[in-house]
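Researcher: I'd like a structural prediction for the single chain below. Treat it as a standalone chain; there are no partners to consider.
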Amino acid sequence: MNKKTLGKNGEKLAENFLIKKGFKILQKNFCIRGGEIDIIAQEKETIIFIEVKTRKSKIFGEVIEQISKRQKNKIIKTAMNYLNLNNLSNCHWRIDVITIFYQTKNYQINHFKNAIAFF
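Model: Treating it as a single chain, here is the predicted structure.
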């Protein structure tokens, strides 16, 4: 499985995971110049921007540790643009990270709520 296919499979697993947890999916793969957010969802009154990281190996450490400060800044900038474009500047929001460790047909999903604290 190539990297792009692995990422798309991970995003689909994350989407299904969120739906089962009661989240409403608002948008997938929101792109603006300089950034992308994998999934934008809503849980009650909160907008959640979700970065999905899928890996087949932990050779480089835990998946959450592989998100750089530069990536964090891009996610925040993209989230702020989404809020502004949709007139949601005054709403509650957070950034979550879903990590998926994928091996053959087995996978492990971890959901880090308000993950900006982990960056």
